[in-house]
Design goal:
It is built from nine helices and eleven strands. It folds into two domains: 27-111, 3-Layer(aba) Sandwich (Rossmann fold); 137-262, NAD(P)-binding Rossmann-like Domain (Rossmann fold), CATH 3.40.50. Helix 1 (8-24) packs across helix 6 (137-148), helix 2 (41-57) crosses helix 9 (262-282) and helix 6 crosses helix 9. The strands form three sheets. A six-stranded parallel sheet has the order 1-11-8-7-5-6. A three-stranded parallel sheet has the order 3-2-4, sandwiched between helices. The chain is of the alpha/beta class. It is globular, with a radius of gyration of 19 Å. The chain binds NADPH dihydro-nicotinamide-adenine-dinucleotide phosphate (NDP). NADPH dihydro-nicotinamide-adenine-dinucleotide phosphate is lined by residues 138, 161-164, 166-168, 185-189, 192, 205-208, 211, 226-229, 262-263, 266.
Length: 284
């Protein structure tokens, strides 16, 4: 068996088309503000991509690139200014933040109605109780990808490897809301492959190159690879690989590629969230 590929690009385009349609119904448009501290190369490239895609969709986009040593008080003052600005639809603070900044305090300072990353505790609570309008982008993008390819979720056994606040936990909440039976595994899970082999849909959100091998996957399962890892083999330059070993293709029924799988969905969902936030502001 060779797994069916589930590329992100067509699913992301469909999501962006919906975002464009909803944007057209907003006379004032929508404006995304992304705040970045320092020059971490991965953060610089993620922020550049978000800014470029936002403009392509027709959003206004402003990147606030601040020095690494920016005092937390200055960052909080910028967030307060954007919270109070009716023209600012969405605010995103790119993570990770430098060690001198308390990330949790910063995320809590963002107006929950402008929190397009969905990380504010109000939105996290809302996610678990079924009330949030702004779901975290990666898990929501993963669900949109499954929907695009008509992969059923209700009644299925879903296993998530990884329990972070940005991927694993919110993905568990969303899958539960969609009537999957959900198991969350992590670094303290004994006999991981016995757990993952029970999955109809297996989600790898770990950050370990090729951790998931054919031995972890039930024949015909759908495998969603969220991982993005810089992987160097021998003398070759490092390249981006997922958490899932390429040999899984011979066992799985369907598999997302890395790069080009979940990544584009995350950005598309961010832009959708920005349009949603702008709609809410226009029609509270
Ligand atoms: P974190 O480092 O925050 O979490 C990793 C999780 O994996 C933890 O829960 C950890 O367990 C678990 N884990 C670590 N080692 C093992 C192991 N050997 N067996 C089982 N579980 C293990 O990572 P993130 O959730 O932030 O990101 C995960 C991956 O997804 C990364 O590669 C990241 O780059 C990628 N990512 C991709 C995005 C995209 O758009 N494509 C967006 C966001 C992230 P424990 O809790 O016990 O420590």
């Amino acid at each position: 068996m060779t797994a069916r590929a589930l590329p992100g690009a067509p699913a992301a385009e469909a999501l962006l088309a919906r975002a464009r349609e909803r944007l057209a119904a907003l006379p004032g448009g929508a404006h995304l503000h992304v705040i970045r501290l320092g020059d971490d190369p991965a953060s610089v490239s993620y922020v550049r991509l978000k800014d470029r895609k936002a403009r392509e969709v027709g959003l206004r986009s402003t990147v606030h690139a601040l020095p690494d040593a920016t005092p937390e008080a200055d960052l909080l003052a910028l967030i307060a200014r954007l919270n109070a600005d009716p023209a600012a639809s969405g605010i995103l603070v790119q993570l990770p933040l430098p060690a001198h900044v308390n990330a949790s305090r910063v995320l809590r300072a963002i107006d929950p109605d402008k929190d397009v990353d969905g990380f504010h505790p109000v939105n996290v609570g809302g996610l678990w109780s079924g009330e949030t309008r702004l779901p975290p982008c990666t898990p929501a993008g993963v669900l949109a990808l499954l929907d695009h390819y008509a992969v059923p979720v209700a009644g299925k056994r879903a296993v998530i490897v990884g329990r972070s606040n940005i991927v694993g936990k919110p993905l568990a909440a969303m899958l539960l809301a969609r009537d999957a039976t959900v198991t969350v595994a992590h670094s303290r899970t004994p006999d991981l492959s016995a757990v993952t082999r029970a999955a109809d849909i297996l989600f790898a959100a770990v950050g370990r190159a090729h951790l998931i091998t054919p031995a972890h996957v039930r024949s015909g399962a759908t495998v969603i690879d969220v991982g993005v890892n810089r992987h160097a083999v021998a003398d070759e330059p490092p390249r981006l690989v997922g958490d899932v070993h390429p040999d899984v293709r011979s066992v799985a029924g369907a598999l997302t590629p890395v790069p080009g799988g979940v990544g584009p969905m995350t950005v598309a969902q961010l832009l959708m969230n920005t349009v949603t936030a702008a709609h809410h502001h226009a029609h509270p």
